[in-house]
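Researcher: Please predict.
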Amino acid sequence: MTFKVMKKKVSVIVPVYNAEKYLAECIESILCQDYPSVEVVLVNDGSSDGSLSVCRRYECERVVVVDKPNGGVSSARNVGLLSATGSLLAFVDSDDRLTPDSISLLADALDRSGADLACGSLSLDYGGRLVPHPLRLGAGEYEPEELLGRFIDDGTMSGFMLGSVCASLYKKEIVDRFGIRFSERIRLNEDGLFNLEYVLRAKKVAVIPDFIYNYRQYGGSSSKKTGDLYRLNLEIKRHICSLACDGVRYDFGGQLQAREVVIALWEIINLPVGTGIAEGRRFIAKCIARAEVREGLKHLDFSRMPRYKQLYAVLIRWRMSLALCLLIKYVQPLVMSRLKR
């Protein structure tokens, strides 16, 4: 006699805000998973379009709908965590899609490895054209100590090692036992901070080679508020330093210093389109002259950077603000327009 192995229930949390155009496609991609036990938790975060009506159309035993006042994506995800009943957790943004085998691939990786976190890669979706965007971590199994010494910044101007909670599978028991939540006060790198706290509590991380998540890209400029990046980074540093962990052991100090260069680069890349050359040059010169940025340059690893980041780093190091301004205003838009074709 053969017995069918019971699969652990997976709760997929979807924060919803004014996503009426793509929401049904997102929900269908979750409901059509080849994994047998999936719960969808749709958290409508005060949408002003027809998103809530779309959510209600799908409401059933497998689909939980929570309606709340607008509080931001972190607030919506935290409400979703309280509503989830599965022993495993996944997160999907309301305009993105999972591949049909996303959850089964991640769940199998957890089972095989005995890990507490499983991660896959995503594809950037430019109007239906998918561009692979692999994780910096190669496929395999990792002890937390292997990751935490480079988790916040690995010296390649790339930001958090695991900067997204999408394309990952978590254990609810760990999230609940340690009270891990998304920071509703910090609206930058919320995903990376959540992952940092989780990896600090995990015993093993499994990375699979598969591209399991389609991340929709838009033609508009970045949603980050350029003027807020420096202030938000100060809040992130305070938050990391407040964590109950051995920050010295993992050299969080050095990583945070390297991160200062990344913040300066983000500020430069988000230079408003209409900014003139003289004004842009002055703004960039101010960003790259900060003492924190000059110190952070000492922690970069040029040998592991792709060529284009090496170029940015060299221009920042030598304070070539005019060249950076011209690069951002004229060269980068041309490259991005070709990528989106």
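Model: The first helix runs from residue 20 to 31.
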